[in-house]
Each structure stands twice: as structure tokens, then as C-alpha cells.
Amino acid sequence: MLYPQMSESRTVISLDGIWNFKLDNGDGFEEKWPERKLSDARPMPVPCSYNDVAVDPEIRDHIGWVFYQRDFYITNQMLMSRLMLRFGSVTHTARIYLNGNLLCEHKGGFLPFEVRLNGFARAGSNLLTVAVDNRVDNTTLPAGRLVTESYPKIGEVTRDYPNFDFYNYAGIMRPVQIYATPHDYIEDISIQTALDGEVSYQIQCSGEGKMLVFVQDADGRIVAWGDDGRIVAWGDDGRLKIDSPVLWEPSNPYLYTLTVTFGDDIYRQTFGIRTVEVRGGRFLLNGKPFYFKGFGKHEDSPVHGRGFDSAMNVGDINLLKWIGANSFRTSHYPYSEEMMMLCDREGILVIDEVPAVGLHTGFTATGMLGGEANGTWTQMQTAEHHQEVISQMIARDKNHPCVVMWSVANEPASEEDGAAEYFRPLVELARDCDPQHRPVTIVQYGGATPETSKVSDFIDVLCLNRYFGWYSQEGRLDLAEVMLEDELKRWTEKYPEKPILFTEYGADTISGMHDVIPTLFSEEYQEALLAMYHQVFDRFPTVCGEQAWNFADFATAENIRRVQGNKKGIFTRGRKPKKAAFSLKERWESIPDFDYKTGK
Ligand code: BDP
């Protein structure tokens, strides 16, 4: 799926700004709210989560539908083009209405979708209404539990328990755009590269036209030609060769641009020349053993919630560079396309994760769940939607050089009966969807050990989230160390050929809380715990990286394990460093991107 872009043939118009907003009173659809101006609406920024800007508990904790609305003008000339309306993401379910007519419904809160406006939009003023539902249950990703309970005096109360440890922010979270293309247009482009400069491309088009393809280097010089003006219908495949290619690497994220002209349409797709491969217990970038340094992150900030915020994104990338990190995981959902483009340009490697979190009926990290052990794969009704989000994420992100691995889930019940049957087809699907054949992983929690995990045989990298010294052996780093080392020994004995990446480890830490003896929640304990993990990682050659949990403190649902959110950040929610930030910086600045453990 192509990102909307201006070119000689394409126009993009932003619909971001202040929209009208109203909570559904339960009758919004029956009363046909999308047909007229919302009454008693309040202002709401787009893109943004609605929860925190409203300063109103009724809105922050609302369960169910809300309505957004705005009008916009269209000219007669615009109607002559192919006109599309595109949402970067709406969390979690959206119904889109134009002038009262339902245009489309979309499920899944973290991926883009678009709908054609021709035939629905009219010259002059148009009324756009977006209804948004934030409910999560055992059919959604992420998964949750909708529960109705009865209370004395109050009666029935419905609560929606997220089965995941981040606040269930909702709304129109990413940019909204209208874009226009010619009627015969370029629909999709896929690019694969090799280290000798060979570039393969597949172009999908609608209609018929003259096809011209060439590549420019970062200075705009044409360095290779592909198709040269033949008439083609519906698309074309080809190969071209760039002499003396400059490779894409973290220290030099060099980008080329493939320009495609098809009839009157022009689209420019950036790409990097790099390869990714797992071999002999190592993760290879451009054929060299790579060491991941970084974090699991969240799209999370005060006021915006999970809403797109380019200042926050650029600031976070700069903090990653300050601390010596070279990578992050998009825990626990695909991040904005704008963030992916930024990582391409800044040389940050990304593990791209679908929103498959909460696939564990016994999960208790929110302190409120419980449930049936061994019941996950009979209770969850997510398999079909899981396929959709995998194929949509890969379709969206396949050309990004920054993306080096796909994560198909975070902490599912991979030790329970049925896990292999559930995941094997999904891992295969991810492999089939990706023209670049990146490695595929499933991030596993502590309950899935080398002995119990039912999915480790068919994933490429063992990604482990471990909390020895926090959720177990709390306060006893000596015990935590032996447990961690022992488990790592068992993993490496069973899977000597699979690299191991630590995708989570950490401790809740209240910024400003200090102690001479490192006690739980103090900045000293966080620092000591990370240092202990690092010593153990360094004893194992197949540990190919460390991504601490979390980059910054973040909002969660209310529960007794969380004090105004999860405090495992190395930075506070406002991005101020805790003590551990400085020792991480010292360590990571001394670890090279390549060949850390090969002694070269
Ligand atoms: C893991 C989850 C992550 C949580 C973290 C924690 O993957 O989402 O925030 O633990 O408990 O279970 O801090």
C-alpha cells in the first residue's frame, strides 16, 4: 500500500485539525447522527487520542462508540481525478460516512485504510462523519474482556478489561488525508535489493500506460534505468543494477529513490540497499553479525495519548541516538508510517509487531485478569483477523529498509495446547507476504521455556521477555542472575542455530526515588538489574541484542501494580533520563553495531 505523496500527477490534502466530537448516547446510529451536524459537539484535535485532551472522566473512560465530524470543500476539478480518503489509523473500529452515506467499516486500530470518494463526494461542501468504537474483546487485536457485572444500588455495569499493559487509547490517531491520482494509476510498488546493487521491482497498476522506471541516488543523480517507455497494462516486473552501491546501515542510512512513471501518473518510492539474514546463530545485516541495542517502545505521550506527534517522534529518535541505541521494537502494534520513514532516514532498525497482544487467557499483568489455564486457543476468536493484520502490516511496510524482522505476536500463550496449530500458518503467511523474506518471530514470555514453548521450532529468532528480579526473585539479583543464566543455557543447548534477542527486561522505577541499598522501585535497583542482565548476555555468543523495557514510562489501565502507569521507562514519560540512562549510554556507546561478539 503506497503512502500518499505529492508529485506532478498527485495532490494530497490534509483533513487534520479541530473536528467536532460527541460521545454516542447509545442511539447515535438510530438517530442518524451522520446525516446532520452533531449537536452540542465539543472540539477534538485530529490526529490525537480523545481520552486525555477532554479532561473529563466520562470521555477518558468511555466504552463504545464516539462520533467525530467535520466538513470540507471539493472543487469540480478535483472530482475529475480518482479521489481517495485515507486514514492513517482509527482505533479500533471505524465507520466512515460521507453526507450521511456509509462508505466503509474498518476493524483494526493501527493500520491505514482508504475508500474511494468518487460517486459520493460532491462539488462544494461535504459532511464527513467518523464513528469510532474502542471496545476490545476476544475477537479483536489487541484482545480484551468485556464484562457486565451487577452492583447493589447501581445495577449492571459493563467494564472493558484490556488484556494488555497499556492504556486503551482511542480515536482518530493518525493523519487523515484526501489524495487525488489520475484514473490510470500506480497502485503498489515492491522493491528487493542485493548487496551487489541489483534491484528487483514489481509494479502494480490500474489501467494502461507508458511505463518508465529509473533510480536516483541521494543527490538526485540517475544511477540506473529499468523500464524505458513501453506500453504496459496492470503493471510490470523488472530488474536493474546500480554500480558501486552505497549500502543502508545504521551509521550511514543511504537512501535511493525509484521513480515510476505510468501514463500520466508519477510516484517516487525510497529504498535502501541492504540484506537481512539469520545464519549460524547470528543475525546478519549486510552479511555481518549485528547487535541490537535499544528498547521496546510505545506510541505514548501526555495529552496526545497514542495520537501521532511528529515532534515526539523526532525527539525520541534523537534520544535513541543520544543513548547509543540502534533499534527498537514497535511493541505492541505497528507504529505510524511517518515513524517508519523517519527510521529509514535516521538508520534505526525496527522490529515491526502486529497488534497481537493479550492472546493469553491466564495473563495477569494488568492485575485484573485471571482465567482458565490452557484455555487460550479455544477461547480466542482472533485467527482470521490476525491474518488480516499480518498481511496489511507487511503490505504497508515491506519497502522500509529499517524494518528487519516481523513480530507476529507479543507474549501469547505459546506454551499452551493449540499454540503451534494457531501460529504455524501465521508465521508462514508472514513469510509468504514479504517479498524481502525477512526473519519472522514471536515474542515469548517467561512461561514459555525451551521445554514448554510450542512455537520456537518454527520461528527464526528467539525473542525473550524476562523479568527475573522483578516479577520473580524480586529484590534478589543474585537469584535472578542464576535463573537467567540457567534458562539461557537451556535455550542455547536446544537451539544452537537460533539467535536470541532480549526484547524485554527491566524494573519499575520511580524517577527521583533513591536508596544506598538498591531497593525495588529505586533508580539504583533499575540500574543494577540492567547491569546484571548485561553481564549474563555477554556470556552467550548467540545473544544478538538487548532491547530494554521500556524506552519511557507510559500510561496503563488502573490497577494496583501500576502507579500512574508503567514506570519501567529509562526515561520518564516527559523524556527525562533516570539514572540507568547514563550507564546504558556508557555501555551502548562501547558496543559496535557489527561483530560485537565475533572478536573481529
Ligand atoms: C510484559 C509485556 C509488556 C508489559 C511488561 C511489564 O509484554 O507489555 O508492559 O511485561 O509488565 O508482560 O512491564
From TrEMBL:
<keyword id="KW-0378">Hydrolase</keyword>
<dbReference type="InterPro" id="IPR006103">
    <property type="entry name" value="Glyco_hydro_2_cat"/>
</dbReference>
<feature type="domain" description="Glycoside hydrolase family 2 catalytic">
    <location>
        <begin position="276"/>
        <end position="591"/>
    </location>
</feature>
<dbReference type="Pfam" id="PF00703">
    <property type="entry name" value="Glyco_hydro_2"/>
</dbReference>
<dbReference type="InterPro" id="IPR023232">
    <property type="entry name" value="Glyco_hydro_2_AS"/>
</dbReference>
<dbReference type="InterPro" id="IPR013783">
    <property type="entry name" value="Ig-like_fold"/>
</dbReference>
<dbReference type="InterPro" id="IPR017853">
    <property type="entry name" value="GH"/>
</dbReference>
<dbReference type="GO" id="GO:0005975">
    <property type="term" value="P:carbohydrate metabolic process"/>
</dbReference>
<dbReference type="InterPro" id="IPR006104">
    <property type="entry name" value="Glyco_hydro_2_N"/>
</dbReference>
<dbReference type="Pfam" id="PF02837">
    <property type="entry name" value="Glyco_hydro_2_N"/>
</dbReference>
<protein>
    <recommendedName>
        <fullName>Beta-glucuronidase</fullName>
        <ecNumber>3.2.1.31</ecNumber>
    </recommendedName>
</protein>
<dbReference type="GO" id="GO:0030246">
    <property type="term" value="F:carbohydrate binding"/>
</dbReference>
<dbReference type="Pfam" id="PF02836">
    <property type="entry name" value="Glyco_hydro_2_C"/>
</dbReference>
<dbReference type="GO" id="GO:0004566">
    <property type="term" value="F:beta-glucuronidase activity"/>
</dbReference>
<dbReference type="InterPro" id="IPR006101">
    <property type="entry name" value="Glyco_hydro_2"/>
</dbReference>
<keyword id="KW-0326">Glycosidase</keyword>
<dbReference type="InterPro" id="IPR006102">
    <property type="entry name" value="Ig-like_GH2"/>
</dbReference>
<dbReference type="InterPro" id="IPR023230">
    <property type="entry name" value="Glyco_hydro_2_CS"/>
</dbReference>
<dbReference type="GO" id="GO:0019391">
    <property type="term" value="P:glucuronoside catabolic process"/>
</dbReference>
<dbReference type="InterPro" id="IPR036156">
    <property type="entry name" value="Beta-gal/glucu_dom_sf"/>
</dbReference>
<feature type="domain" description="Glycoside hydrolase family 2 immunoglobulin-like beta-sandwich">
    <location>
        <begin position="185"/>
        <end position="274"/>
    </location>
</feature>
<feature type="domain" description="Glycosyl hydrolases family 2 sugar binding">
    <location>
        <begin position="14"/>
        <end position="182"/>
    </location>
</feature>
<dbReference type="InterPro" id="IPR008979">
    <property type="entry name" value="Galactose-bd-like_sf"/>
</dbReference>
<comment type="similarity">
    <text>Belongs to the glycosyl hydrolase 2 family.</text>
</comment>
